[in-house]
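request received
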Amino acid sequence: MLDRNLVKDILNEALSTGGDYAEVFVENSFASTLQTAEHKVKQSTSGLVFGVGIRIFSGVNSVYAYTNLSDRESLLRTAQKAARGILAHKRDIVFDFVDVEIENIHKINKKFEELNKSDKADLMKKISCYAYESSPLISRVDATYLEKKRHTLVANTLGVWAEDTLFRNRFSLSAIAAKDNLSESAGNNFGGLYGLELFDKYDHREFAEKVAEDAVSKLSAEDCPSGKMDVIIGNGFGGVIFHEACGHGLEAEAVAKNASVFAGKLGQKVASELVTAYDDATIPNAWGSINIDDEGVKTQRKLLIENGILKGYMVDRLNGRRMEMEPNGCARRQNYKFAPTSRMSNTFIANGNSTLEEMIANTEYGLFAQKMSGGSVNTASGEFNFSVDKAFIVEKGKIKQQVKGAKLIGSGIEVLQQIDMVGNDMDLACGMCGASSGSIPTTVGEPAVRVRNITVGGQR
Amino acid sequence: MDAEKFVEKLYAAGLQQKAGEFQIDYGYHSSFGLRALDGKIDKRSFTENQGITFSVKKGKNIGSFDCGELEERNIPLIIEQAEANALLISGDEENFFHDGSGSYQKVKKSAPVSALYAKLDKEKYVLELEKAAYAYDKRIKKVISTFLGEGESKRFMKNSHGLDLSEKENRAYAYLYLSAESGGVTRTGSEIVFFDKEEDFNPAGVAAKAAQKALDKLNPTNIKSGNRKIVFENKAFADFLETTAGIFSANSVQEKRSKLVGKLGQKIASGFVNLVDNPLLDGGYNSRSFDGEGYPCRLNEVIKDGILNTYLYNLRTAHKDGVSSTGNGSGSGNRGISFSNFYVMPGMLSRDEVLAQAGDGVYIVGLNGMHAGYSSVSGDFSFGAEAFEIKGGKLGRALNQITVSGNVYRLWNEIEAIGGDLAFNPSAFGAPTVFVRELSISNE
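response:
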């Protein structure tokens, strides 16, 4: 990390042309990835990331500069370059750093180094074997394990000096099933802010067998029918619907520019009264959690929607200035090459009172989207789309044949209004979310929910 | 420390290690950006960064380490990590460093028209771009993003076999993204230009294109779900190609992720379809004289008159199949397959002639949610799409968002006509207008 006097000099240089706020972000990360397939280690990579980002505000105007040339001269030159982007009267801003006390709520039990890479690879191969063993139709199993140590410093002209270290890891497994001329694949993963104890949290055989079974069952699935129908979205990764259809539109990055359908709707009903939703970066060890955000603001549990009423946005420092709102600890970035902005962390719909069984029993004709894959949203029009990985037709209150290739489309606000049952089986699942400040780990979550009348697309 | 000195020291340390074969890849990138919002320049960016990848070969395998902090103290770590990674990999297939042999052709990469770009007042340009978009039509609701960026990249690769290559690249672009509203419906449009044509320097023209795209989508109607004739706008098919191109990679074929296994020399597409990977394309977005492994590039006819002619290879996959690399190796780190300018060769028809041939159907201008809606293993896809109806051979009204579903392997054989209007999307995938016999759509 950089010396405090140097950081102070950088910040003073950054303010030399009249900026009213400046910030330095320093990142030092070490990441390592292992891939196995067909009982062999296919890839082993690692890398060290180092870089410094400098940001200056003048009102709602901003400049972002970064470099990974770490000598004093280069850093000051970068600050000067950035400062030339601000043309205001120089102000008298005096500051001294005060350490922000950060309590690490994401405790690690087994350090990454406690196993060497080849032992980790052996473990991956063993888990893959369970998938091969579970069915003769499994033709290939790929496993990926990644771990990352991210050390960051945020220092700014408000006097914040915040250093934090996070350990994050994730294991993914995918299997291909083949029969006659058909092939299908399925996958699953687990991850979080863990050490190697991540692996102790799951029954490896059960996990791998489920992945294999998902791939095999698709071989006999029919093409999904097209048309409007009621859809029961399964818990856990099903929360991607909320992430896409609503979450992105609640980020200040979209709201401040009036580019979100949720702009100006605080206090208004935007969803069915059964919907209460949070963005909570404080969940211990969750994949999308942090201790402090990339602007040095302590993270929070944020109520977004309560009983259908819009209660809050995710607000970063710069967009907060436009919106006249305080930042609430959600500014994130992939790495030093991105200026931070408001992003989601662990975003989920809270539990309701129904059960999945009741939802199925009460559905005359529809789709049970048990396992979702990803999707995307156009925050300006509110239109979203997302893909279903594993789905069944529901007919007269009973689960019928499995179908494949289903896509759900609609508009965010409409779909939130159309939720008429919310389950009591809330679960979280890992994902990666891409937006203007890069690709970051986020968690999605929900209990099972039923949505009336969604457009479903498939090959039939 | 100074990059050249650092690389020199790392190279010397590599030789001393008796590591045998090794390679150093160095990359440098700097950029500048401006954003306009509400009549002011509200964001600026300046960036500069560099990094190396050090790769070593142990047995058959190559391991590597990426380092973004070029300090002498990191040299032992870099070598140790790269060696450890190489020793751990247990693949049967041999990996190679290229020795620099073969003929490297000169190519002209896409670059801004320098005489015009040097004179461009960049701040004025982005401000005018935003202003012109609002002025174009009163239904333009919000100009969401107006951005101009420029960047300079340098890279070189050097290895113990004598490979010593370098290249430079300059790029500049402007991007406009906006929404239009009418009757409670909001639709978006965007345009990106690279300043490689004279017309790109006229902000009003660029703004008009983005604005018109959004306006055309207003007052949407619905269409009954079912199977329809589908015509893809050129750039929409280029997007489709980008998402599904992996099936032509030798890596996917060898890993059984592509159903084109064993299909070389067989008919996989309609007889008039030609698909090429052309790194030598004059002024192409991704034109290059060597690939990520330093191997010389050449034109590859992937589909020739409907017949699968070749997969795209890097050094490892080519060795496994007993052929030579097609010059499609990717970066030193993960040694996969990369595409250069990958496109469907244009035919003779205009877009309107293709629409007339389709008669009644659906015209797709944009695809969404592609990463999640596609399985290369089965070839099945189901995407969200922005579309128009085609009625009596003419473009009709905009449609509310539809889904479009099908199978990529089947689609190539069901192409009925190809236009002459080849266009590229910003990542070097290109296509003309493409008419497909039948795909399933869902809307109402």
